[in-house]
Amino acid sequence: MVSDDIRKKINSNIPLDKFEALQLWKTASFAELMQLADNVRNRFHPNKKVSWLIDRNVNLTNVCFSQCLFCNFCVKKQNENAYILSLEDYREKIRVLFELGGDQLLLQGGMNPALNLDYYINLFSSLKREFPQLKLHALGPPEVHWLSVRAKLPIREVLIRLVDAGLDSLPGAGAEILSDRVRKIVSPGKATSKQWLDVMREAHQLGLVTSATMMFGFIESITERIEHLLEIRKLQDEKPDGSPGFLAFIPWPYQRTDTNLFEKYPDMPRIYGIEYIKMIAFSRILLNNITNIGASWLTVGQDIGALALHAGANDLGSVMIEENVVSKAGANYQLSPDSMQKLIRDAGFEPFQRNQNYQAFTRQN
Ligand code: SF4
User: Ligand 1 test: best mutation among 62, 111, 213, 252, most atoms within 8 Å of CB?
Assistant: First the structure.
C-alpha cells in the first residue's frame, strides 16, 4: 500500500525523488497505481478527451552501422535486401498518406554510412518543395548526434540546418533506457545517454517540438527505468520558457521475436499487459511536467491500449499506415481511423484527431 506521504505528494503535484519512486513501484497495488495516475491525468486533461493521429512511419533505409541487439530490422550494406528509398518511393507513400487524411511522415533511419547531413538536407527540402503541407517528424537524437560527428559540426548547427531544410519536430527515438550500462550491452554503437540528452537539450533551446520515449522490459532494472524517467523530467525542467520541450512521453515494451538480444538472454522475463499498464501509470505519476502520455497500442494491442487510458495515458498515437521495426520483432496489430475512434469511445473517452503539436488536426491544402 502506498504511504500517505507519497500519496499526498502525488496528489499535490510535488515531484517524487528516486527513493520515493522506488517505494511507489514496490508498494503500490495495481489498482492504487491506476487510480493515482488517473488523478494526475485528470489534472492535465479534465475533459475525457483522447488524442490520436494519422501519420506514416517510414524508414528511409534499412542499413545501419549500429546493429543494436534488439533490432532485427537493420541489415549490413552488403545485404541483398539493403535499400535506400528513392524520391519516387516517397511520392507514393505521401500520396497514400494524404489520401488517408494524414499529413505527417515519421521518418527514421537506419544510420547508413552512405548518407550524410547534405543527403538529409536535400531530402527534406525536396520533399517540402514538392509537398509544402507535409510535416516531417524525423530522425532522433542518435541520428542527429551521428550526423554532427560526421559533419564535424556542433549539434546545434546540425539541428538548425535540418530545421531550415524542413524538419518540423524531433521524435524521442533511440532512447531505449538512458543508462550507459544497458546501452553498452544492447546498442554500443549508438549515442550515449548524455549524448541523447544533449541533442534534446539543444532542440529545446531552439524551440523545436520533441517527444521522449522509453523501450523497457529487457535487461534493465526497475531503478534504471526510474533513472530514465527522472532524467527526462530533469531535462524538461531545464527547457526555456515558451519552448515546447517534450510534448509527450511514450513508453513501450521491447519486442523480442527473432532479435539477437533474445537469443543472447533467452531467460529474460516477458512484459505482460499488467506490467505495461503499471509503467504507463508510473510514467504519468513521475513525469508531472510532461502534458501527454502515449499508449503504444501497436506493441501491446488494442485492449491493453484502451486500459492504459484509465491508467494515465491520454493519447493512442497513430493508426500506423506503415511500421517496420517493432512489427519485425513481433508487434503486428492494425487499426483503421474508424476502429481507432471506436476503441477510444468504447473505453469511455471522446476521440480527437490531433496534429504533431497535440492540437486538433486541420487539413491544409
Ligand atoms: S534500432 Fe535504430 S539505431 Fe539500432 S540498429 Fe536498428 S535502425 Fe539502427
Answer: 111
69 lines ligand 1 (CB under 6 A): no
Q: How many domains does the chain have?
A: 1
Q: Burial, 77: exposed, middle or buried (Cβ in 10 Å; 0-12, 13-18, 19+)? A: middle
Residue 93 domain-assigned (yes or no): yes
Q: Is residue 218 part of a domain?
A: yes
For the domain that residue 224 is a member of, what is the CATH number?
Answer: 3.20.20.70
Is 201 near ligand 1, meaning CB less than 6 Å away?
no
Is 356 domain-assigned? no
Per-residue pLDDT tens, the chain, 365 aa: give them: 999 999 999 999 999 999 999 999 999 999 999 999 999 999 999 999 999 999 888 999 999 999 999 998 899 999 999 999 999 999 999 998 998 889 999 999 899 999 999 999 999 999 999 999 999 999 999 999 999 999 999 999 999 999 999 999 999 999 999 999 999 999 999 999 999 999 999 999 999 999 999 999 999 999 999 999 999 999 999 999 999 999 999 999 998 888 999 999 998 888 889 999 999 999 999 999 999 999 988 889 999 999 999 999 999 999 867 655 555 555 555 678 899 999 999 999 999 999 989 999 876 65
Question: What is the Cα–Cα distance from 300 to 271, expressed in whole angstroms?
Answer: 10
pTM: 0.94
Give yes or no for residue 67 CB within 6 A of ligand 1. yes
Using CA atoms, how far apart are residues 70 and 67, in angstroms rounded to an integer? 8
Radius of gyration of the chain measured on its C-alpha atoms: 20
State if residue 328 touches ligand 1 by the CB under 6 angstroms criterion. no
Task: Give the 3-state secondary structure percentages of the chain, helix then strand then coil, rounded to 5.
Answer: 45, 15, 40
In a domain, 365, yes or no: no
The answer, yes or no, to whether any atom of ligand 1 lies below 6 A from the CB of 229, is: no
Domain housing 167? 14-350
